[in-house]
Amino acid sequence: MKTSLPIVIMLATLLLPSSIYAAGHQVKMLNSGADGYMVFEPAVLSVQMGDTVTFLATDMAHNSASIAGMIPEGASPWYGEISTDITVTFDQAGVYVYQCTPHAMMAMVGVINVGEGKGNLAAIKSAAVKKSTGFVANKERLDNYLAQLD
Fold it and tell me: Is the full-model pTM beyond 0.85?
């Protein structure tokens, strides 16, 4: 039986690992940006499973760290060093909230939605209310970012 080359190529492409199709994204850690002072830019990002996000230490004295209870259950947390780029691979669907540890009280937070599911969004909103006294002085910024996912 003779198989045509286009069919073989199509089948080989379908069998390639999905990581080949993963995209890379960048988020800047800034002292000043479009949303004010002490911000991640972009602050709200949607990516697909398998994509990577590199947090760039554009301005010094910032980091990116996931917030316990504000990432999908079973997802891997991350904690970047101050003034150092960090790349995170997102392999589980859901909403992730992260912060700059030294500037969390100044509402330096960001949100990443991975895939189509937002199954943990209600849990994140509930956790934000519970943590609001010690979490961010300006919870309004986080609420605004989460509203962009609704």
Answer: no
